[in-house]
Amino acid sequence: MILGVGIDVVRIDRIAHWWENPGLVARYFHPLEIESIRRKGGGVAGSLAARFAAKEAFAKALGTGLRGFSLNEVQVENDPHGRPYLVLHGRARDLFARRGGARAHLSLTHEKDAAIAVVVIEGDV
What we know:
Number of helices: 5
Structural class: alpha+beta
Shape: globular
Number of strands: 5
Oligomer: single chain
CATH architecture: Alpha-Beta Complex
Distance between the termini: 6 Å
Order of helices and strands: EHHHHEEHEE
Number of domains: 1
């Protein structure tokens, strides 16, 4: 059963300068996520914007907005085929479970100017 759907759009130019501010990056991104972005190399601004959009889309799908957890507790990673997925930590994981979440599906895209994320949260019936 679908518990929630969230979508978010982020302008890439709004996020582009974040990488130069480690404190700001740490506020919004999980340490393992930061390491993944570092390893990836080029296209950092698009990656940051897409991941930030994913975090906000997750909050919308969860139905809590940005209350009850920190965005750096929502980690975006990619499987070996490049498919993005969410890893939840701490209060984000706990809130997801309390609200009946079983699975979270994530789709990301980014073009020249914008990054878009869609999150669908599924619960067990």
